[in-house]
Write a structure and sequence with these properties.
By secondary structure, the protein is of the alpha/beta class. The protein contains 12 helices and 9 strands.
Length: 312
């Protein structure tokens, strides 16, 4: 007898669902909602799963041409290499960093460390991206309880506060964008979330971002305002996105190491922020963190949601 709603937004389904729940609670329609994301894909095999998820791309321009997401993000990676002088080793550094973080996460899908050499010697999936530049398909589920402040105080227990929420959209096909090295929906969603929270990117202590491929994390950090366009790769080289550095990016291990259970990913990011801000993150804890951000998009960024949280 309880109302329910199913939301589909490709890989961004979890975060879009969270935003819908947030809007309903903020509007006063409900006092307490549960947001759940679930995915079960590994039983189908890589070939079938890759083909199925390729249908989430733009069908007219990309799907009919046989494009898959590794190929589309490889196009973004190639453009970034050309435009900003990055190297394939720079992409590998992102993978190594996220595996280091995932090694500390007992719930990570790929809970193991790797080296730059491991990445560089892994099979090419879509040049310049290699196997270790790509996140895995994962099984998983995540749930969060979203409620009013009054409800939380009346019922007790630890909680964190949502202080910002934003959502944006981009042309589904890469050819419809002015630049290959940016995801417009991220910039739109982030701007709205920062405005609502009354803060800037400089106030964020850590972020869980959508690193479906290593190039995505670099582009994400720039579009979210953590670094200037073209400077995200330099930050990676200098270790400024490592755990407990300038800004800790993907302390959970990200999609790359924690895993990417498609429908559960966006909700799982919120769980990581909760764990970080309530002292439950263990060895991967971001020291003295007060404000965390989640960033999750669908396809190559056709839909994106950004949320900002603070400890209480």
């Amino acid at each position: 007898d309880k109302p329910s709603l199913t939301i589909e937004s490709a890989c961004g389904s979890g975060s879009v669902s969270f935003r819908e729940a947030y809007a309903n609670v903020a509007a006063g329609f409900y006092d307490c909602l549960v947001v759940t994301g679930v995915e079960k894909v590994t039983h189908t095999g890589t070939e079938w799963t890759t083909t199925y998820f390729a249908y989430c791309s733009d069908f007219f321009y990309e799907g009919q041409a046989g494009a898959s997401f590794p190929g589309l993000f490889a196009s973004m990676a190639r453009a970034y290499l050309t435009e900003f002088g990055a190297t394939e080793e720079d992409f590998a550094r992102v993978a190594v960093k996220n595996h280091d973080n995932g090694f500390l996460n007992p719930k990570a899908h790929m809970q193991k460390k790797i080296t730059i050499d491991d990445v560089m010697k892994s099979p090419v999936v879509a040049s310049p991206l290699k196997l270790y530049d790509c996140c895995p398909f994962s099984d998983g589920a995540s749930s969060v309880i979203l409620c009013s402040e009054k409800f939380a105080k009346e019922h007790g227990g630890d909680y964190i506060e949502v202080i910002g929420s934003g959502r944006g959209g981009s042309p589904a096909a890469l050819q419809g964008r002015e630049q290959m090295t940016t995801i417009p929906s991220t910039k739109i969603a982030a701007a709205d979330a920062y405005k609502m929270a009354g803060i800037t990117a400089k106030d964020i202590d850590f972020a869980e971002v959508h690193d479906c491929f290593t190039i995505a994390e670099i582009v994400d950090t720039e579009d979210l305002g953590f670094f200037e366009k073209g400077k995200g790769v330099q930050a990676v080289r200098e270790g400024r996105t490592n755990l407990n550095s300038d800004i800790s990016i993907n302390p959970s291990g990200g999609l790359k190491s924690k895993g990417h259970p498609i429908g559960a990913t966006g909700v799982g990011q919120v769980v990581e922020v909760f764990d970080q801000l309530t002292g439950r993150a263990g060895a991967r804890t971001v020291k003295d963190a007060k404000i965390g951000l989640t960033h999750n998009f669908g396809a190559t960024g056709a839909s994106c949601a950004v949320h900002i949280f603070q400890s209480v």
